[in-house]
């Protein structure tokens, strides 16, 4: 049973490959006729000036020929020949010039015009091998008038060809299946470029989705949990103020609960601002950074000059860069003052944070600077730190305004 299944698969594969080869003969012979037409014009009419005519007609038919070959590979072999990216120009003269100057066009010309006649010859050879194999195997049925040794030779040759023909058909089909994507589809560089563009778009979508989810969580906490805590703190405050005849233990418990509620509100405020400050979305970087600087326990000068607002994701990254940088200044720099400058230079948003601290910040030491560099890199930005011993420390992040 296993041998029967193996034989059946081999037969089906040979039939598929032979069908693919046979379907290519009319196409490739039609292309070979272009050569015959051009040579006939030159030899008979001696008219070299009209030689470009058949070639021009061939160029016009290239898109159709390529589409037919693409369908042939997909339908008969299951091989997908990717379509090249469309030409971006809208006006047909520019599109024509760009199409004629494209390397992919001339790869298709090479496939159809140069390889076409050669492939047609190989495909005819495959069919001839099948025909000779069938004729040889059935020699006993029609060659009774021939000598026995000739009949035996024909039969033996037919059996040999019957074994060789499937291999020849498969080899031809595999060769064409490799040539078609390489010459009719996009080149390796084009495929890599399209993959890079796809990955960049996917990463941008992911970043925007994460930022949108962060904003949603911030709104839910602000409008839900935070409001409940505020209501709880107000009720506890009212209870402390109005219920004056309670025992001392109960008043102490209410006081402690009121204090814990206010601390929870403060911590939740910090968490919400850490997720996504609402003022950033409502009023932009200038207001958000001014509010951030006001909470830092040292003087911070803020200058924001960006004109038109950048993409929301970019503004979010810029905000968190400044937030983390000021947190590092507060914890480690022993500085007395910091300066924050955000400006738009062309299509870049440049964030500059400088402090007069002791310096020595090192991103390679595993500090929070590595996280900032990764956050900036997630939007294709650049991140640099200059922090010589003794200071000052300067942090510069350059972010693309549009993703």
Q: Brief description of this entry?
A:
Helix content is 71%, strand content 9%.
Can you characterise this structure?
- The chain has 403 residues and is α+β, with helices and mostly antiparallel strands.
- The chain folds into three domains: 185 residues, no CATH class; 89 residues; 118 residues, Heat Shock Protein 90 (2-Layer Sandwich).
- The protein is 71% helix and 9% strand.
- It is built from twelve helices and five strands.
- A five-stranded mixed β-sheet has the order 1-2-3-5-4, with helices on one face.
- A hairpin with a 2-residue loop joins strand 2 and strand 3.
- Helix 1 packs antiparallel against helix 2, helix 1 packs across helix 4 and helix 10 packs parallel to helix 11.
- The radius of gyration is 38 Å and the shape is elongated.
- It starts with a helix and ends with a strand.
- The model has no long low-confidence stretch (mean pLDDT 77).
- It comes from Actinacidiphila bryophytorum.
- GO terms for molecular function: ATP binding; phosphorelay sensor kinase activity; protein dimerization activity.
């Amino acid at each position: 049973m296993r041998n029967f299944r193996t034989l059946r698969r081999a037969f089906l594969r040979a039939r598929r490959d032979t069908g693919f080869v046979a379907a290519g003969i009319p196409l490739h012979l039609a292309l070979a006729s272009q050569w015959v037409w051009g040579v006939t014009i030159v030899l008979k009419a001696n008219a070299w000036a009209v030689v470009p005519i058949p070639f021009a007609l061939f160029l016009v038919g290239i898109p159709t020929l390529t589409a037919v070959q693409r369908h042939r590979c997909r339908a008969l072999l299951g091989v997908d020949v990717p379509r090249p990216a469309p030409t971006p120009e809208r006006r047909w003269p520019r599109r024509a010039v760009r199409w004629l100057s494209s390397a992919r066009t001339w790869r298709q010309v090479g496939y159809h015009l140069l390889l076409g006649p050669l492939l047609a010859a190989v495909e005819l050879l495959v069919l001839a091998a099948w025909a000779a194999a069938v004729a040889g195997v059935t020699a006993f049925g029609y060659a009774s008038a021939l000598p026995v040794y000739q009949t035996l030779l024909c039969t033996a040759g037919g059996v040999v060809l019957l074994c060789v023909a499937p291999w020849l058909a498969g080899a031809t089909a595999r060769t064409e299946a490799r040539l078609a994507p390489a010459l009719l589809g996009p080149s390796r560089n084009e495929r890599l470029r399209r993959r890079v563009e796809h990955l960049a778009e996917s990463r941008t979508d992911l970043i925007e989705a994460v930022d949108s989810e962060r904003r949603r969580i911030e709104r839910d906490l602000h409008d839900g949990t935070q409001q409940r805590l505020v209501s709880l703190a107000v009720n506890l405050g009212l209870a402390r103020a109005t219920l004056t005849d309670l025992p001392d233990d109960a008043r102490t418990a209410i006081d402690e609960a009121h204090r814990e509620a206010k601390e929870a509100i403060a911590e939740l405020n910090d968490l919400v601002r850490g997720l996504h400050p609402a003022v950033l979305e409502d009023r932009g970087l200038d207001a958000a950074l001014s509010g951030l600087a006001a909470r830092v326990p040292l003087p911070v000068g803020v200058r924001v000059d960006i004109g038109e607002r950048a993409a929301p994701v970019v503004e979010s990254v810029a905000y968190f860069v400044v937030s983390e940088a000021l947190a590092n200044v507060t914890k480690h720099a022993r500085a007395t003052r910091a300066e924050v400058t955000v400006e738009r230079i062309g299509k870049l948003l440049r964030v500059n944070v400088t402090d007069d601290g002791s310096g020595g910040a090192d991103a390679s030491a595993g500090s929070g600077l590595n996280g900032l560099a990764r956050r900036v890199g997630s939007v294709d930005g650049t991140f640099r730190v200059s922090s010589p011993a003794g200071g000052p420390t300067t942090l510069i992040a350059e972010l693309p305004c549009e993703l």
